[in-house]
Amino acid sequence: MNLEQRIQSFEILSVFLQDFLNNKNNPRKIWYDKLEQKINESFLYNGWFTIENVKKSISGIISLLNPNNLNSLKEDNYEVKIPKTIALIMAGNIPAVGFHDLACVLLSGNKVLIKLSSDDKIIIPFLLEVLIDIEPRFKDFILFSQNKLTDFDAVIATGSNNSSTYFQYYFGKYPHIIRKNRNSIAILTGNETTEDLIKLGNDVFDYYGLGCRNVSKLYVPKNYSFNLFFESIFPFGNVIENKKYANNYEYNRAIYLMTQEKFLDNNFLIIKQDNNILSSPIGVLFFEEYEKLNELETQLISLKDHIQCVASNAKFKQLTTVNFGETQSPGFFDYADGVDVMKFLHQLN
């Protein structure tokens, strides 16, 4: 397979997924029932992976495989001379979160050795079944491992700060990308509209806040009033209907009440001031006040290795931001932790 054939296969996969979500005819419509079954199975296996969230992740994959993005790969001539085997150790915090890395490896012409997360082991294997149906030659480029990883040339591993230490110990001698915990933040100026804050609600509540691109902390002007924010996020109140989310929310609320800490609460989200931590527990959103945006920018640049993305309408000289509502919609070249995966793979040859 050459690059153009690989790209075409992923484009066909994207169309299949789009047609599935829209219930349209497709040459592979026979796969629809099985995909619906896998989506339901994901929720039964992992209570965080609701049908809505799995379909949301599928929408994200469709966006990722935008033809304009994929065709840009041709300009950089990502053709390998000798395929290498890339071990992928996937996270399982949100559905099919490892798909981007997987697509990068296969599009680059390399082979992939996949170590699935125990929390997310249903959707990605199915997507690869469909991809192989589209282009049978991919079968020789895809392997799964349930045991110790062996016979590979490079590693891409995603996990926590603790697991990254383990990954570094075992895989440090190989070419590698090892990712640690990161969090996303939002910077408010007080001039946001209701529409802005509704979109921010998606950044906070999509996937119940489990993704590294979910906003876990707000930076707000001194003496900021949260009234409009609470009014705007009211439509997201159904998150409390998920038992796992509700248990986390109620547990954290009980802890804060027992320790007599100050917080704001709307019966499905706790907002609490914390000037030291970026990562908030499920059901909690931290905030920190600032006085001047330029001083805040300097502070956040010093934390860049801990921040995945920043949502804001404010403009900065050095800090890169995304619009509200777009933290969970990265493009193909919006690589996690800012590490260019395609470049990494290309340099292995």
Q: Would you kindly provide a written description of the structure presented here, covering whatever features stand out?
A:
The strands form 2 sheets. A 6-stranded mixed sheet has the order 8-9-10-7-6-11. It has a 5-stranded parallel sheet with strand order 3-2-1-4-5, sandwiched between helices. The longest helix is centred in the N-terminal third of the chain and has 19 residues, at 3-21. The chain has 12 helices and 11 strands. It folds into 2 domains: 3-181, Aldehyde Dehydrogenase, Chain A, domain 1 (3-Layer(aba) Sandwich); 183-312, Aldehyde Dehydrogenase, Chain A, domain 2 (3-Layer(aba) Sandwich), CATH 3.40.309. The protein has 349 residues and is of the alpha/beta class. The protein starts with a helix and ends with a helix. The model has no long low-confidence stretch (mean pLDDT 94).
